[in-house]
Amino acid sequence: MNYKKKMLILYIILGVLWIVATDYLVLQLDLDTYLNIQKFKGITFVILTGLFIYYALGKKEEVELIKNEKEKLNTLINSMVDFVNFKDGEGRWIESNDFGLKLFQLEGVDYRGKTDAELAHYTDFYYDALNYCMESDEETWKTGTVTRCEEVIPLPNGSEKTFDTIKVPLFKQNNERKGLVVIGRDITQRKQAEQQLKESELKYKSLFKYNPELVFMVDLCGSITDLNPKFEPLTNYQNHEAIGKPIFQYICEQDKERIYQSFRAVVKEKKAKRDHEVHICHKQEKKVVVHFALVPIIIDDNITGIIGYANDITQILETEEKLKTTEKLAVIGELAAGIAHEIRNPLTSLKGFVQMFQSESQKENFIHKIMLDELERINTIVSELLVLSRPQEITFSKKNINDSIKDVLTLLESEMNLHGVTVDLNITEDPLLLDCEPNQLKQLLINIIKNSIEAEATNITIGVLKQKESVTLNIHDNGQGIREERIKRLGEPFYSEKEKGTGLGLTVSFKIVEAHGGKIKYVSEVGKGTLVTITFPLNKKD
């Protein structure tokens, strides 16, 4: 029964009761009193009727206002993209928007007055989800405060929706449960965006942090803003030491201007630039060469910084140098194998004829001596070429290295006396047996000591140190010394600063040390002398 019918019936009942009751009372009185009572009754009836009509109209306005507010509320909640639900203190649904009904497949269901458990029977797919809502509602009632959580709702198509759900409990003054407001905002797209952002950050982190190359970021002034862990092993500087400093500080002087120009070009043209063989400053002054690339960081068509890549090619360049040396040796080997023996045959004849001319000559002729010296030098070069030819089987045997040193010094004694060279020998009397090829060992010692003599040394110190599994031979002279750039090329064939040198002597020496499984190291300073350190294993390993 609607409000209008209720008000009409109430008005009729009250009006009839008033007329009947007042007429009965009036009949009990006299005429004069009757007339006065009738006037009073009429006036009272008009007043009461007016008050009733006023009350009824007020109630009607209030009902209309409530109706309008309800319509506004329904319009508001139905226009929302959020799930909105109002429940009473017992968990029964009072009002829900269309989004919520559609979400839980309750469209067309008379849901008002029913709990989540009762509504669960209307939808098989969301049966468990609706029952879970009762449990989470109960937790909110127990806490007595607003709760917020993320809930994942499955969809029939196999996908999911994530809701940021807020539950607001309402209580009466006596703390009884009055109602529960549930608002669930669909944050699926936000969660997906966050996940994509997280994945992008992880990819960026992997690309930046775990990149096998050095990766760095700089601002438009060239100051370093970020570095990956490859910076420290490449330069031996700590990352925190470099942050905030100009990247050009870590470029060697010879390449600094070139990199600066490339940097300015990237800022101006907004295009990547690549530089080959850039020398990096190492804390321990080691040689480090990299391929350098600068790439602009562009946001909204504006360059905000530069990201750089540095690929260490030091080892590659060293390998290329070794390969070039190997190629030279291969060419030498081919040439030596083909011509060495052919040279020695006429060389022997020439030397024999010169010696015959010398013996038949009535007086000493210096020309004969020069010819014999030159023929002997040619023979020495041919011998060195034969050593550099195809590898030959070497027979190792136990040899006292002290005896080998003494034999070489005896052999070179006259030459050292001629140049005024003294020798300090620091060896033990006990035999020091080394697994070696004796003739090659002697040739190695001769080459090194002759180099000291030719470097105008006046004193040569030779020492032998026995260690647990190796023997170290130190040969130190006070000659002219060797320039640093020359030390880097020691052992390279056909590279020599001597007027008549071929560069093959040290090449042969390096090959002998290598064949014996040893190591050779040169330390020199121009004008102060050279120290050659050779280490051999006591027992040669195959």
From TrEMBL:
<dbReference type="Pfam" id="PF00989">
    <property type="entry name" value="PAS"/>
</dbReference>
<feature type="domain" description="PAC">
    <location>
        <begin position="274"/>
        <end position="325"/>
    </location>
</feature>
<dbReference type="GO" id="GO:0005524">
    <property type="term" value="F:ATP binding"/>
</dbReference>
<feature type="domain" description="PAS">
    <location>
        <begin position="200"/>
        <end position="270"/>
    </location>
</feature>
<dbReference type="InterPro" id="IPR000700">
    <property type="entry name" value="PAS-assoc_C"/>
</dbReference>
<dbReference type="GO" id="GO:0006355">
    <property type="term" value="P:regulation of DNA-templated transcription"/>
</dbReference>
<keyword id="KW-1133">Transmembrane helix</keyword>
<keyword id="KW-0902">Two-component regulatory system</keyword>
<feature type="transmembrane region" description="Helical">
    <location>
        <begin position="7"/>
        <end position="27"/>
    </location>
</feature>
<dbReference type="InterPro" id="IPR035965">
    <property type="entry name" value="PAS-like_dom_sf"/>
</dbReference>
<keyword id="KW-0418">Kinase</keyword>
<dbReference type="GO" id="GO:0000155">
    <property type="term" value="F:phosphorelay sensor kinase activity"/>
</dbReference>
<keyword id="KW-0808">Transferase</keyword>
<dbReference type="InterPro" id="IPR036890">
    <property type="entry name" value="HATPase_C_sf"/>
</dbReference>
<dbReference type="InterPro" id="IPR003661">
    <property type="entry name" value="HisK_dim/P_dom"/>
</dbReference>
<feature type="domain" description="Histidine kinase">
    <location>
        <begin position="338"/>
        <end position="540"/>
    </location>
</feature>
<dbReference type="InterPro" id="IPR013656">
    <property type="entry name" value="PAS_4"/>
</dbReference>
<feature type="domain" description="PAC">
    <location>
        <begin position="147"/>
        <end position="199"/>
    </location>
</feature>
<keyword id="KW-0547">Nucleotide-binding</keyword>
<dbReference type="InterPro" id="IPR004358">
    <property type="entry name" value="Sig_transdc_His_kin-like_C"/>
</dbReference>
<keyword id="KW-0472">Membrane</keyword>
<keyword id="KW-0812">Transmembrane</keyword>
<dbReference type="Pfam" id="PF08448">
    <property type="entry name" value="PAS_4"/>
</dbReference>
<dbReference type="Pfam" id="PF00512">
    <property type="entry name" value="HisKA"/>
</dbReference>
<dbReference type="Pfam" id="PF02518">
    <property type="entry name" value="HATPase_c"/>
</dbReference>
<dbReference type="InterPro" id="IPR013767">
    <property type="entry name" value="PAS_fold"/>
</dbReference>
<dbReference type="InterPro" id="IPR003594">
    <property type="entry name" value="HATPase_dom"/>
</dbReference>
<keyword id="KW-0597">Phosphoprotein</keyword>
<dbReference type="InterPro" id="IPR005467">
    <property type="entry name" value="His_kinase_dom"/>
</dbReference>
<dbReference type="InterPro" id="IPR036097">
    <property type="entry name" value="HisK_dim/P_sf"/>
</dbReference>
<protein>
    <recommendedName>
        <fullName>histidine kinase</fullName>
        <ecNumber>2.7.13.3</ecNumber>
    </recommendedName>
</protein>
<dbReference type="InterPro" id="IPR000014">
    <property type="entry name" value="PAS"/>
</dbReference>
<keyword id="KW-0067">ATP-binding</keyword>
